[in-house]
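Working notes for the structural subgroup meeting. M.R. asked for a predicted model of this chain before we commit to crystallization trials. I am recording the input and output together here so anyone reviewing the notebook later can reproduce the run.

Input as submitted:
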Amino acid sequence: MTVSLGEEIMLLSLDDATGEAKGQTAARWGVAAGMLLELVMAGRVTVKGGRVEVFDPTPTGDPLLDGRLDRLTRWVHGASSSRKVTDWLAREHSKGSQDVVASLVARGPVTEEKRRALGVFPVRRYPEADGAVERELRARLASVVLDGVEPDARTSSLVALLHATGMHPQAFPGVPKKQVVPRMAEIAEGHWAGVSVREAIRTLQAAISAVTVVTVLSVAS
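Returned structure, recorded in token form:
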């Protein structure tokens, strides 16, 4: 099963047994950035200089990606000036995560459980249903980050987003941060991608840093 970057990030964040998201805030930003990067890699969107533009609105054939592309196209075309990447991430980080989880449920890696916390408040959890996809994902990440295997472009993109969002604990549970951060940074800064994707990665990394700071300051105030 081929899964998108956004779905991979969500899978890493969900606890296999309880279905609860670990590092939920970081995962939401990562999912939104991952879906946008997928559209860049598909040749539908450009992300450059802090701005996002729709290059080609033609559907990709992937329902999850096409839903994002349609929303992004309407959002971009409804503006009198170019749109900021940070604004898109802020707009999409919640809705995008919901759609990604729904896609994972529909495709089978996780299942949805509904319950009531304290017998009153409705809660939804997404425990593992079929662990094959996540096992392959974690093995691939371990091979490039822990074992030094040369990553392909998609794995490098994923590592770059995980590094930007600080999702080291979710990607490598139980492994000391100092053991993975240098290698993840090396991959994120590498020249493994074409110019457009490399520019998109840098822009998304800066955008994630900016929206994360804003979120922290908002909570603190």
